[in-house]
Amino acid sequence: MQQHPIFNGIDKSHAAQLWGQEPVCISHRLHESPLFARDTLAALIEAYPREHYGIIHMGARDSERRYWREGDLNGLSGEQVLEAISRGRFWLNLRKASVVDHRYKVLLDQLFGELEQHIPGFSSYSRSCGILVSSPGAQVYYHSDTVGQMLFQISGRKRVYIYPPKEPFITAEVLQQIAISGLEVGVPYSEWYDEYARVYEFEPGQMLQWPYHAPHRIENHDCLNISMTVEYITDPIWRAQIANLADGVLRYRLGWRPQGGSVSGPVFWAKAAVWKAWKKSSWFKKQRAIHKRIEFVLDGTLPGAVRDISPPDLASNA
Known about the structure:
Shape: globular
Order of helices and strands: EHEHEEHEHHEEEEHEEEEHHHEEH
Strand content: 25-35%
Number of helices: 10
CATH architecture: Sandwich
Radius of gyration: 20 Å
CATH class: Mainly Beta
Number of domains: 1
Largest sheet: 11 strands, mixed
């Protein structure tokens, strides 16, 4: 059976010239796919492996403190989870959907096939996709990713801010810290940065791709949002990952101040040796330990509410 194209008019856009250099917005058809219908997503949520999802509870948008807690779905049905998210302040991240469910793997392969056909020289590997379900008014704080990213809007509306991938918006030291810890949040942010952001009113049927390391943040409008994230690695991204991790080891373990910037030649391959050695070290594993303490469960009797849990409850709810 012939597949319908995912992208609309990608060959007529400027994506081929701007890809990886500037934010790119392209039309797509994923919001028409039955893979993202509410009943399909409800069934997917119910069967989703615990190790591959995260449910986050956040504070009010006007709060000065970054409030971001990890929780558990508490055995609720998929429909109950969707209802809770529509009434609360949550982000549900169904990670590795292309691994968990083969249908999304087929979709991902088609997606990259179309991109590689229309964007000369674009080649990637280690691809994955996830599904985000988020509450009206929810937000994603200012952060930077360690992999290539695309964001597809399926339903609902949100505002996306994308910032230049350079100082002062993101620094080499921060990138090194992210590489060491694996935590992409906590990047320093000032309100005046918004004057230099590209701002998108993101609608269903739109996809955004932005330059590697470009910081970004998201504000949902007053509606339930469903999006698909796509992550990938290219050779330049792989080289940057190695350089950032090696420089992070030199800075935070050995007390040096690396100059950075070397992604080829003898200096890079020396950093690659550092990267390979330290990835196996107990120090690195400790630094990359995921400090995700389960602090709440969804309340099955009051949609949108949570029930805080104490440390002794973690084993039974994690």
